[in-house]
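HUMAN: I'm a chemist; might I ask for a sequence paired with its structure tokens?

ASSISTANT:
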Amino acid sequence: MTSITYEPSLSEKFSGLIYEPFLALGERRGMRDRRRELLAAARGRVLEIGAGTGLNLPHYPTGVDLVVTEPIAGMRDRLERRATEEGIDASVVAAGADELPFPDDSFDTVVSTMVLCTVPDPHVAISEIQRVLRPGGRLLFIEHVLADTPRLSRWQQRLAEPWAAFADGCRCDRDTISHLRAAGLKISSIREDSWKGMPAIVGPLAMGQAVV
């Protein structure tokens, strides 16, 4: 496992500390099972963007060549610790999804779970995903998305700014699937779901695969 030497700021340490407790109920009420189901399809050289504290790590199949990125130092510290404690062979890289430090056509699989809601510009991040995926490579995703019901989508739009201020930039009003399609990715499978145990404005989920 690659080691990163960087002293996190107080705010970064705080983010790392509260992330898992905040998600705990949602993990117990279905998200952990979704991660396991999604990641069973990971193959070859795999890149996970925005890996956070490493909640996906235990669910990767054996035999993949795993690289995980995380830009927030407090999260990355816990990510590295989890990989070491659980004996998971993964290279940990300090990088955001909008500027991936990898050559073109480097990966067979890219994984994004609740990341494209938080990146500053989803179009840039999706372009980077396309760039590093090999032809025929797959994006595996679970993202909370803009609701297709008018009442909830209106609340998501009204509360987008305060939610982003509370949740480290997370946007509850991103129409992520439309962004993927507009970029030319082919959605090969998709399932709508609901993120139980979390606030309603981040409840609508989309889970699936997209092909370059």
Observations:
- Residues 1-14 have pLDDT under 50 and may be disordered.
- The chain has one domain: 10-211.
